[in-house]
Design the sequence.
DNA sequence: TTCAATGTTTAGAC
DNA sequence: GGTCTAAACATTGA
C-alpha cells in the first residue's frame, strides 16, 4: 500500500514526532527485518547486536524520502557541541506492502522492532514481513549495497519536466501501466496511483508508451503531479494496513476513481469498469474513457 | 479451500 | 538487450 503519497505522509509524521530525539533502546523481535533481502537467511545474533550497538544513543537529526524509501539520519550526541550534528549512521526503511511506522502505538504480534526514544516509542509493524529496516554508515554505503540503483526521477524534482517525460516515453516499447510501476522513469507510483493517473489522463493502461501523443503526455505529466500532490494533502490512501505515524487513516482512498471499482460504473460515463492483469497486478480502467 | 492483496526482485522464455 | 510472465517473500480475509 505505501506508495509515494503514503511514504511522504509518514516522513512528515516522523519529522513532527521523532526528530531531535535520542534512541535509548532498540528491541528486535524479528531479525529478518534488519537484514536486507539478499541476506535474509544470514540473520544472526551478531547482526542484531551490531545493529543495536551502531544505533543506540544516537540522535535522529534528519528524515528523508527517496522514492518509497525512508531514511533517518543520525548523529552522535557524546559532545555538547550543538553544531555536532554530523551524520554518523542512517536507518534505511522500506515498508513494501504492509509495513507501518507508528509513534506511541500498541505493540501487536506483527510488531518487529521497537525503538525507545526519549519521549516515546517508534514501532515497526509489518504483517507480511516484506519490508526492511537497515543500518548503514551513510548514504554512500547504502548505494554501494545496491539501493536506489534503478530509480528514475522524483515526480516533484525540478528535473522531472514534460520534455524529460516525452523523451523517455518515446523510447519505451512497453505499456504505460508497467512503465509507471517500474520506477525507471519517475518513482513513487504503485498500483493504486498508476490506475488513478491513467484514468484521469484518459489513457488505457495497455497503451504502448511510444504511441502516446503530445496531448496525452501533457495530460499524464500534469496528472502525475496533481494526483500525487492531492493524495499527500489528504494523507494518502488507507485501503488495508496503511496508517499515519499517529495511527490515523489517510483520506485519499475516498477520492479513488477506478482503483477497487472493477465491475462498477465509471464516474464519468457510467460504462462498467474493466479489470485487466498487467505486469501481474490488477488494473481497473474504463474502456470508453481511456483510449 | 482457494484466491487476491499495496512492492520489488529474480529467473526463464521468446 | 528488451520485454513478458510467474514466482518468491508471509499473512489475512473474503
Sequence:
Amino acid at each position: 500500500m505505501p506508495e509515494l503519497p503514503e511514504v511522504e505522509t509518514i516522513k512528515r509524521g516522523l519529522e513532527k514526532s521523532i526528530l531531535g530525539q535520542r534512541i535509548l533502546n532498540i528491541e528486535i523481535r524479528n531479525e529478518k527485518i534488519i537484514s536486507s533481502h539478499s541476506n535474509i537467511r544470514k540473520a544472526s545474533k551478531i547482526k542484531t547486536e551490531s545493529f543495536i550497538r551502531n544505533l543506540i544513543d544516537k540522535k535522529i537529526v534528519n528524515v528523508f524520502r527517496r522514492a518509497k524509501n525512508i531514511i533517518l539520519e543520525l548523529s552522535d550526541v557524546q559532545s555538547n557541541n550543538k553544531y555536532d550534528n554530523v551524520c554518523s549512521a542512517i536507518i534505511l526503511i522500506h515498508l513494501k506492502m504492509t509495513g507501518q511506522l507508528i509513534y506511541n502505538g500498541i505493540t501487536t504480534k506483527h510488531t518487529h522492532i521497537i525503538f525507545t526514544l526519549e519521549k516515546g516509542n517508534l514501532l515497526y509493524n509489518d504483517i507480511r514481513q516484506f519490508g526492511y529496516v537497515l543500518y548503514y554508515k551513510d548514504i554512500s554505503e547504502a548505494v554501494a549495497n545496491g539501493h536506489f540503483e534503478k530509480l528514475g526521477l522524483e515526480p516533484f524534482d525540478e528535473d522531472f519536466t514534460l520534455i524529460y517525460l516525452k523523451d523517455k516515453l518515446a523510447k519505451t516499447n512497453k505499456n504505460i501501466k508497467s512503465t509507471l510501476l517500474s520506477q525507471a522513469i519517475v518513482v513513487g507510483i504503485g498500483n493504486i496511483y498508476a490506475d488513478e493517473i491513467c484514468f484521469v489522463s484518459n489513457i488505457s493502461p495497455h497503451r504502448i508508451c511510444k504511441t502516446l501523443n503530445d496531448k496525452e503526455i501533457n495530460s499524464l505529466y500534469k496528472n502525475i503531479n496533481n494526483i500525487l500532490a492531492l493524495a499527500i494533502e489528504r494523507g494518502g490512501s488507507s485501503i488495508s494496513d496503511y496508517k499515519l505515524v499517529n495511527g490515523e487513516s489517510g483520506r485519499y482512498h475516498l477520492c479513488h476513481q477506478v482503483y477497487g471499482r472493477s465491475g462498477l460504473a465509471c464516474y464519468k460515463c457510467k460504462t462498467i469498469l474493466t479489470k485487466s492483469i498487467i505486469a501481474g497486478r490488477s488494473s481497473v480502467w474504463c474502456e470508453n474513457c481511456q483510449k
